[in-house]
Structures are given as structure tokens and as C-alpha cells.
């Protein structure tokens, strides 16, 4: 895994997950191998029937000198046409958005982006999630302690 957007898990309800390929230049791929990318403050939008990721940060590769890339350029996502249609339909609906969750290399060494159709959480939803997580931790502690007796 190259990078992960942990903030998305806190701020959104995750509805559906999709694995998307991403169009990269050579210097971007080399820079990703160094593992210094960021997808925290980026978003995904639809333009002319295609999905693009805006605001993702892939730093310049220092050995590429002349053929380097712009670190925050929009990058095209590669998905099946029915997935693109479904995601654009969700983007146009009220309350839904598409955010990236993880950036990683798959088993064939292709750069992949895990994206999700999400719905925003309100403040009380965030508090409820925190309470549920604390309760789960307490249950695990009790079960662990009672199993050792």
C-alpha cells in the first residue's frame, strides 16, 4: 500500500467500493515506488463521461529532471463504462460523493486506487461511531480477560 485516506472513514458512511486503475506518466510511477504520495485532500469528479481525480499529490521524481510531472495534476481513472455511469449517477444525487480510500500496487504491480461512493456524516453520527468503537474495545477486553481465567 502506498497511502491511505483515514479521514474518509471518519467523515463519511461508505456505501460501495470500486477498484480503479489510474493513468500515470513514467516519473509518477517511479515516484509512487518511493511511497510519498497523498490522497487526503483530493476529490473525484466527472468530466465528459470520464472520471478524474483532482488534488492528489505525487511528488516530483528527482532523477527525472527534464521529463518530470506536475505534482497536483488531474489524473484519469480507468473503470468499466457501467461503473462510470453508476458513479456519475451517484455524484449527481443529493448527499453522495466519490472519494479515494487507498492507493496501492496490486499483485501485477499496477497502480490501483480504491474509491468509494460515500454519504457524509453529521456530527452526531461521528459521535455515535466513536461510542460504538469504544464499546467494541471494552467488549474485547472483557472477553479476553474472561477467557484467561
Automatic annotation (TrEMBL):
Subcellular location: Cytoplasm
Entries under InterPro entries matching the protein: SmpB (IPR023620), SsrA-bd_prot (IPR000037)
Gene Ontology CC annotation, any one: cytosol
SUPFAM superfamilies the UniProt entry points to: Small protein B (SmpB)
Alphabetically ordered keywords of this record: Cytoplasm, RNA-binding
Domain of life: Bacteria
Pfam families per UniProt: SmpB (PF01668)
GO BP term, pick one: trans-translation
Annotated CDD domains: SmpB
Molecular-function annotations in GO: RNA binding
Major subcellular location class: cytoplasm
Its biological purpose: Required for rescue of stalled ribosomes mediated by trans-translation. Binds to transfer-messenger RNA (tmRNA), required for stable association of tmRNA with ribosomes. tmRNA and SmpB together mimic tRNA shape, replacing the anticodon stem-loop with SmpB. tmRNA is encoded by the ssrA gene; the 2 termini fold to resemble tRNA(Ala) and it encodes a 'tag peptide', a short internal open reading frame. During trans-translation Ala-aminoacylated tmRNA acts like a tRNA, entering the A-site of stalled ribosomes, displacing the stalled mRNA.
Family named by the database record: Belongs to the SmpB family.
Protein name: SsrA-binding protein
Amino acid at each position: 500500500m502506498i497511502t491511505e485516506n483515514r479521514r474518509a472513514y471518519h467523515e463519511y458512511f461508505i456505501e460501495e467500493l470500486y477498484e480503479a486503475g489510474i493513468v500515470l506518466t513514467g516519473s509518477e510511477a517511479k515516484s509512487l515506488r518511493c511511497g510519498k504520495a497523498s490522497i487526503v485532500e483530493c476529490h473525484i469528479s466527472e468530466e465528459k463521461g470520464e472520471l478524474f481525480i483532482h488534488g492528489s499529490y505525487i511528488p516530483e521524481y528527482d532523477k527525472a529532471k527534464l521529463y518530470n510531472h506536475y505534482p497536483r495534476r488531474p489524473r484519469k481513472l480507468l473503470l468499466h463504462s457501467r461503473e462510470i455511469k453508476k458513479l456519475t449517477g451517484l455524484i449527481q444525487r443529493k448527499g453522495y460523493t466519490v472519494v479515494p480510500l487507498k492507493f496501492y500496487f496490486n499483485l501485477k504491480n499496477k497502480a490501483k486506487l480504491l474509491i468509494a461512493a460515500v454519504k457524509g456524516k453529521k456530527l452526531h453520527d461521528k459521535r455515535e461511531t466513536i461510542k460504538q468503537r469504544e464499546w467494541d474495545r471494552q467488549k474485547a477486553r472483557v472477553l479476553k480477560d474472561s477467557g484467561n481465567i
